[in-house]
Write a structure and sequence with these properties.
With about 325 residues, this protein is α/β, with parallel strands linked by helices. Helices cover about 45% and strands about 15% of the residues. The chain binds NADPH dihydro-nicotinamide-adenine-dinucleotide phosphate (NDP). NADPH dihydro-nicotinamide-adenine-dinucleotide phosphate binds next to helix 13.
Length: about 325
């Protein structure tokens, strides 16, 4: 047991990321039923959709699970009401100021975790009263920090600066990577991309296939002028690059992005025109599996690597 497993009441320090369009109740329940913390991604759900997913998740697992709430969500008050009404045990907030909702959620008995991409925001989150922090590095898929701080550089800095438990994210899809970030002082890992290519994820089959087939260097962090996002370099990405070459203004970029690009790509499977948000680790993902097998594989590799490492330690 460590600080995170104790805080959440889970067995394994693996948190599944609450990714928009990819994290339904089926995935959250599967991860929680296998000892991790499953997370419903509320950012792409209308209020009634989130209620349905929370209700179904409560019926599918007796274990703790969480909801990810991007604080910029247009109807955030309604999502807050839902998590309180259904007594969701843990809420992971992102993309916004943790000072605004943390007190209300905590007063309702909910544990609150906030996602940050710098030590500065980790300190602000701690001051806002969060129970733990997800520190997410540059390698991560989807929305990401502007500073491009890699997970290797970020985790140590955050761990050295805050007292609350730290969950490492960005670039973690294997047991070896899990061991690496825990060596840096993280208490747990948050894994997104690997679970996109799970059987329970609601990502479109076309998107899952692209993730499995994509190789080194095929993602990029772009659109920093709006909200930085790491995605696969498809036709839409090429249009963005073309716009940059023509000195596009922020307004031009917003117009090009339009509305619902993420849904089009990840949920509807439009590989040309949609946004396909995935992390650099897509290069390691070679198959689509049930979430239970993914967890077993990561934990198995974690323990094997840990043993191998201790048998190859040298005296310097
Ligand atoms: P867009 O503005 O391009 O589109 C909104 C999408 O969210 C639509 O596909 C819509 O579904 C869906 N949606 C769900 N609930 C609502 C609601 N109450 N009002 C309006 N739309 C809703 O946003 P993105 O696709 O870029 O982002 C989707 C969500 O992801 C955001 O609402 C936010 O919660 C989260 N997010 C976005 C970030 C960003 O910078 N884009 C950063 C971090 C999180 P439909 O097509 O069925 O109407």
């Amino acid at each position: 047991m460590n600080r995170i497993t104790k805080l959440f009441g889970i067995e394994k320090p693996i948190i599944q990321a609450g990714m928009i369009w990819c994290s339904p109740w089926q995935l959250a329940a599967a991860v929680s039923n296998n000892g991790g913390l499953g997370v419903i991604g509320a950012g792409s759900m209308y209020p009634e959709t989130l209620e349905e997913h929370v209700d179904k998740c409560l019926k599918a697992t007796s274990k703790p699970f969480a909801v990810n709430l991007p604080l910029l969500y247009p109807d955030i008050e309604k999502h807050i009401e839902t998590v309180i009404k259904y007594k969701v045990p843990i809420v992971i907030t992102s993309a916004g100021n943790p000072k605004v909702w943390t007190p209300k959620l905590k007063a309702s008995g909910i544990k609150v975790v906030h996602v940050v991409s710098s030590a500065k925001f980790a300190l602000k989150s701690e001051a806002a009263g969060v129970d733990a922090i997800v520190a997410e590095g540059f390698e991560a898929g989807g929305h990401n920090g502007r500073e491009e701080t890699t997970t290797l550089a970020l985790i140590q800095d955050v761990v050295d600066n805050v007292n609350v438990p730290v969950i490492a994210a960005g670039g973690i899809a294997t047991g070896k990577a899990m061991l690496a970030v825990m060596s840096l002082g993280a208490d747990a890992v948050q894994i997104g991309s690997r679970f996109v290519a799970s059987e329970e994820s609601s990502a479109h089959e076309n998107f899952k296939k692209v993730v499995v087939e994509s190789g080194e260097g095929q993602t990029s962090l772009t659109l920093k002028e709006i909200t930085p996002v790491r995605l696969i370099k498809n036709n839409f990405y090429n249009q963005v690059q073309h716009a940059y070459q023509n000195d596009a203004s922020v307004e031009d970029l917003k117009y090009l992005l339009g509305r619902g690009r993420a849904k089009k790509g990840m949920f509807e499977g439009d590989l040309m025109e949609g946004e396909l948000e995935i992390g650099q680790v897509a290069t390691y993902i070679k198959n689509i599996k049930p979430a239970a097998e993914i967890m077993e594989e990561i934990l198995g590799e974690f323990h094997t690597s840990r043993r191998q490492l201790s048998s190859t330690i040298y005296d310097f």
